[in-house]
Amino acid sequence: MLTTGIITDIGIDYKTRKSKISLLLDTKEIGIVEQLKNENKLNVEIKKWRKKRSLDSNAYCWGLCDAIAKKLTVPDAVITKEDVYRDAILHIGTFETMILPEKALERWTRIWNSQGIGFLVEEVSRKDKCVKVNCYYGSSTYDSKEMWLLIQLLIDEAKKQGIETKPKEELESMMKEWEKNVSKRFKQ
């Protein structure tokens, strides 16, 4: 079950000294909650709610990637929209730095890459049979602010290639909407 909600009460179980919380969930599916109530143990993840980026921003991102790829493709070298997208992720993307044993690098890379097109592993250095890597997250994990940075990078590249982008007013309107959503999130 995945839903949103708010914490309505926080306390301590005096018997076990563990935290107790009460939640008000944004769902009317009481049957699912009743089924979970009878489970011995549950996986629980509670994190701050963030407004997801819009589907319009995702469509615009891929449209820019496609236009850039078509402009850069020459007879001897085909560039795909996925190539453009991955390059943008490497330039602007969010990543985690990890140190892995050399023997685990190939398997880890395969597992990380399998999460999506933008999930990339970039080798940084090697030392003492270990590899330092940056593991980039795909834009499917991005919030509105991160998505705006990615789109802005693609807009800049499109302009360099002489590709028409959305009118300045429309981009500014999109940006104001994203900024409003981001600032609301930080005020909560």
Give a structural overview.
- The protein has 188 residues and is α+β, with helices and mostly antiparallel strands.
- It folds into two domains: 33 residues, no CATH class; 133 residues, no CATH class.
- 46% of the residues lie in helices and 21% in strands.
- The chain contains six helices and five strands, in the order ββαααβαββαα.
- The strands form two sheets. It has a three-stranded antiparallel β-sheet with strand order 3-5-4, with helices on both faces. A two-stranded antiparallel sheet has the order 1-2.
- The longest helix is centred in the C-terminal third of the chain and has 20 residues.
- The chain starts with a strand and ends with a helix.
- 16% of the residues are buried.
Quick summary:
The protein has 188 residues and is an alpha+beta fold. The protein is built from 6 helices and 5 strands, in the order E-E-H-H-H-E-H-E-E-H-H.
Q: Could you tell me the radius of gyration in angstroms?
A: 22 Å
Describe the strand arrangement of the main beta sheet, using strand numbers: 3-5-4
End-to-end C-alpha gap: 24 Å
Average pLDDT score: 85
Strand content: 15-25%
Main beta-sheet annotation: 3 strands, antiparallel
Structural class call reads: alpha+beta
Total number of beta strands: 5
Order of helices and strands: EEHHHEHEEHH
**Shape summary:** extended
- Give unreliable regions as ranges: none
Helix content: 40-55%
Give the tally of structural domains.
Answer: 2
Number of discrete helical segments:
6
